[in-house]
Amino acid sequence: MKKIAALSTLLILTSALAASPKDTLVVQESSDIPTMDPGVTYDTASGAITENLYETLLTYSGASLTKLEPLLATKWAISNGGKTYTFDLRKNVKFHSGNAMTCADAEYSFERNLVTNSAESGNWFIAESLLGTGANANDDKTITWARIDKAVECNNSGQLVFTLPAVDPAFLAKLAYTGQSVVDSKYAAKLGEWSGKEADWKAWVGKDLTNSKLSQAPSGTGAYKFVRKDANAFLATAFDGYWGKKPAIKNIVIQKVPELAARQQAFLRGDADIIEGGGRAVDEEQIKGKPGVLWIDNLPNTVSTAFFMNENIKSGGLLGSGKLDGKGIPATFFKDSNVRRAFSYAFNYKQYIDDVQNGKGKQRTMLLPDTFPGYDAKIGTYSYDKAKAEQYFKRAWGGQVWKNGFVMTANYRAGSVPSQTAMEILKKNVEALNPKFRINIQAKPWSEMLSDSKTGKEAMIVIGWAPDYADPDNFMYTFYSSNGYYFPRSNWKDAQVDKWLEQARNTVNTAERNRLYSLVGKKAYEQAPYILMPAGIAYTFVRDNLTGVSAANYNPMTSFSSTGTLWKDLGKK
């Protein structure tokens, strides 16, 4: 009878707003949930769900970004020179289906990620660790079933054993990512997912799991189990068979409410406990200080954003004449470090902080969150300096840039006020230096920009990176390595930087890694491959009767970033 009553409450809440009951968490978001399959979870909306329905071997300890603690594992040992990891798994853990979790489920989960490894997923980084390549077997023909099978196995003692081809200091952090959660192998196979056997592995290589059978009917070990989902609402309820501490909140309702004003009204009435806001300027004006609101500020920001200055622009449409004749720019315009430094001095960082971040932002020295290990606060930063910008423009291209002038076109993400404002600041300041300088800026759909930037067709764009796992490699290699994910967008290459980044990937000595990342940061400051955007100071707000939300326990690596915690850690008073 209790289950029926709880479900009735959920159904009422999704059809008509009512004051949020004490045993129910009501969340309103602007968009939907792409997937509930951990094997393809690679966005925050999906991650916020999967991390509460499923669990990983280990997790972050409290608010720490560096300390990891056991979750489905109870302990682990590292051997073989840092290339073998052996995990003891928790006993008496049940999936939502009622199946008992075994080592075979964990082995299946990781092998499934290595087998499928589609472009839509984040499995490239676990494949890098376990196979030595981020590719799947369709794209890298050297990947065989034998290699996948050997990478992760259960030994005779029921322990899970990972065998890496090389040392990876970020491996444990990667295991804390919700996409590496343990799934219910018997249940999944019964649904029609991969069998877990060699016989049909090739049919699943590169397969997009976004709308998989498992996504439609998930079964994890998490504190909450799935009830139902439609176009406008997601419902979950506490799992009676959960191995850990029982959660204080029984029901979870997530509603899709596209209109910001409607979300704000529901929140201020108390009909919603948490909502997706409208950005700092809007939220400070409309929400902060209102009755019933808990506002938490000065939280860590783990996103890094920059202007990319592409050193090999592959789109003639942005180059004008394609020459330094005052009517265009050559494809290699940004290859001269004098041009990049001139642009870096021409950007007004303080104005951006004031206009976009309401004065709540700060400059970083490198494209790495300042809360991450490896960040060096002593490296220099650029400031708006007209004289220095002019000085470097006069040196650029042997004096030809200053003498002839240039015309270039830069695109920004359509609908992004911060990106548009940043472009406008830069355009105004650069053009003020010399009447022969011209930057044409234009809005472009995000999907088109992403696609074109991947193939080097954008001249200059503003783009950021949010972490997959809390390790500096996820930022430093991504931005600064010529083998990194973002290289095609910048085409900046420095052999010494590449060497330092590879060395940092191949040692588990934290002090040595930090030293190497500092060297990369200093070299990048000198070479100015990017204009580093000031980092906004993060904040959140919830109804003040919600407990468990505080700056002390807020972890930005938790996908459900409104609270920086899991649902099971929340309560109501």
TrEMBL record:
Name listed for the protein in its UniProt record: Peptide ABC transporter substrate-binding protein
Pfam families in the cross-refs: SBP_bac_5
Keywords: Signal
Boundaries of every Solute-binding protein family domain copy: 67-485
Endpoints of the signal sequence: 1-18
Matching InterPro entries: Peptide/Ni-bd, SBP_5, SBP_5_CS, SBP_5_dom
Family stated for the protein in its record: Belongs to the bacterial solute-binding protein 5 family.
UniProt key word Lipid metabolism: no
